[in-house]
Specification:
The chain has 161 residues and is mainly alpha-helical. 78% of the residues lie in helices and 0% in strands. The radius of gyration is 20 Å and the shape is flat. The N terminus is likely disordered.
């Protein structure tokens, strides 16, 4: 076994490529949710009642709108990078630094999407309910997102390295 092979018999480059594929597969399921939120938010300013929103609600709208746009950019970036680099340079996904950058973009995009989702929940619930109830609903959502998207994978799942 060479120094670049692991116990399963894959070389380091194969493991990096496999990790990229796993990330891309995960993004295929994440991106539609981000894009649906963004599409919904694109339509809101064209509704007659939008102009009657309070300043706080318009602020929540802007956080949700720009958050979903930024999340889209960050989550699409790894795919765009691969499509742009490979045809011109022939570079394959073999670099651990490229993988680390991709993981960072994915985590950043997921984090920004969580903020956008919270702002959207606040916006909708504050229109339907009173401010304290909207704040509670947003805090409950933020807690659930923090637990499901961050706590579980970081703390709950044991490393198998």
């Amino acid at each position: 076994m060479t120094q670049h092979e692991n116990e399963a018999g894959h070389d380091e480059h194969g493991n990096v490529d496999d990790a990229f594929r796993a990330i891309m597969e995960g993004l295929r399921t994440t991106l539609p949710g981000v894009q649906v939120l963004f599409a919904f938010l694109l339509t809101l300013p064209f509704q007659q009642s939008f102009s009657s929103l309070s300043g706080v609600n318009k602020g929540a709208y802007l956080v949700a709108f720009f958050g979903s746009a930024i999340a889209s950019i960050l989550l699409i970036a790894p795919s765009a990078h691969q499509r742009i680099r490979a045809p011109f340079s022939g570079v394959r996904r073999r670099s651990r630094s490229d993988l680390a950058f991709t993981v960072g973009m994915t985590i950043a995009g997921t984090t920004v999407f969580a903020v956008a989702l919270g702002a959207a929940v606040y916006l909708v619930t504050s229109i339907i309910l009173d401010i304290p109830a909207a704040a509670f609903a947003t805090a409950a959502l933020a807690t659930l997102v923090a637990w499901a998207w961050f706590y579980v994978p970081i703390v709950t799942f044991e490393r198998t390295d």
